[in-house]
## 1
Amino acid sequence: MIGTPRVHLRLADSTNERAKELALGGAPHGTLVTADEQSAGRGRQGRVWTAPPRSALLMSVVTRRLTPTLPVAAAVAICHALPAACEIKWPNDIWLERRKLAGILVEGRPQDGWAVVGIGLNITTEGFPEELAEIATSLRIAGIELDTEAVLASLLASLDEWLEAPEAEVLSAWSQRDALRGERVRWADGEGVAAGIDASGALVVETEDGRVALDAGEVHLSPP
Ligand code: BTN
């Protein structure tokens, strides 16, 4: 069961770091690490993840059931856990009203059969730093008042369901929440129109030179 055993830390460097340490020590599938606060929270692509103490759900889960679509399933699980019309911005940002509500950082050792799914979800966060003010949101900003433990309970149940769901079902649920489909996007080497994801979770983009599949990195919405 996802969420058992659970370790809660008042202050962690990074819940992903703590969960990875537990995984290396043999912690079972489903082991959960949560924290009130992180001193070295990490985001994708070497970015920092910060949140004022107790304002966000900060959690990492050890999984020993690996599938190519693990991050895709985690994104779907977050959307289904919340009473809000969330969308997923490839690869796995959770958007609410076109602003980032949550992020996912999957790390691990597939060759050793485990991964850690780290999730940061803004619950009561307000007053984001200037560089995030226009692009981030929280449940509170969207008018949804929920307790962190209530969100955690709902998310654990959703992860239990979606991490075990058949891949076709996961991909179909992802498509229904796809924030980019039909949008013009650009990335380091090109631009085109987003056309969903393939079976491996890669973003399919229609370009002037044909279809390409982006399996890693970052895309941005092109200005209108
Ligand atoms: C991203 O959007 O770039 C991913 C952000 C992931 C942040 C969470 S917070 C809990 C867990 N511990 C970390 O250090 N990172 C993840």
## 2
Amino acid sequence: MIGTDLHTAANYLRQGEVVAIPTETVYGLAGNALDPVAVSKIFEVKNRPRFDPLIVHCAGAAQFARYARELPDAVQLLSQKYIPGPLTFLLPKSALVPDIVTAGSQRVALRVPNHPLARKLLHALPFPLAAPSANPFGYISPTTAQHVDDQLGGRLPYILDGGPCSIGVESTILGFEDGMPVVYRKGGLAIEEIEAVIGKVEVRAHSSSNPNAPGMLKSHYAPRARLILGKLEELLRAYEGEQVGIISFQRSYDQLAADRQLVLSPTGDFAEAARRLFAGMRQLDQLGLSLILAELLPEEGLGRAINDRLRRAAA
Ligand code: TXA
Ligand code: MG
């Protein structure tokens, strides 16, 4: 059932059930992070392999000290500016965090979502919420309550509807190795914004076999239709006569019906492009096309997170 009632959602969560919740990035599949049985239900609902750890969502940055053993100065600095927000920290975990949450890793991913309903919910609960994106494993992440209902509705007692996600791509994940900051997933907070506060960061978000972030699989966020990246003019010519759709950054193409074109932002606004990406991919995927042709955006700001999703969708 989809609804906007915070108390219903909170009650299910207190009983150890799994509930879909809105965040500013994508919808999450939430359960009591301190209850291993509730967390195991998350893995079941999502059909997610147990080796892929979950992010722990907290009511505020003040709670990080409970679930992490160490808080580097960089975390304090970034928290002041960007928490709540689309930034997840990977930190040495405290004993309060069950092993099933981190898939046995000694590091835990912590974040504070910047969504009014999610924040109210987290403040009302005496525990933090473990939550992966609320999609079946490997598919495109949901950015509306309806997306969640379409695929997982039958397996959930409640979907808390907080409207369409304002950011639209998952959080940026930042950890530390020998004290040096490393970005493991490009996401809703641009790397430039992070570097403005703590200086140069290393980006290690390309690998398909990254032992520090086992979930960052090469093939992910994938529509059912095959997705091919390149120059749209050339691709449209090469695949003329096939059932194609396109994902373009700014311009549309006269030779193709409008409903087959996902134009991310006619004005070239990265934030708008990110907000529209996943919903648009789902819409295209529902047309039963044989191919989706897509172009990459400039490699800057949120363009980098969008390109990362497009590359994985194409893999
Ligand atoms: O924006 C987001 O981060 C959304 C919303 C719901 O908060 N959540 C999300 O969760 O994208 P998920 O599970 O779809 O992606 C989390 C990523 C996975 O690639 C996982 O492997 C990685 O974070 N991760 C989580 N905990 C980790 C840990 N302890 N060590 C390494 N990687 C971790
Ligand atoms: Mg996910």
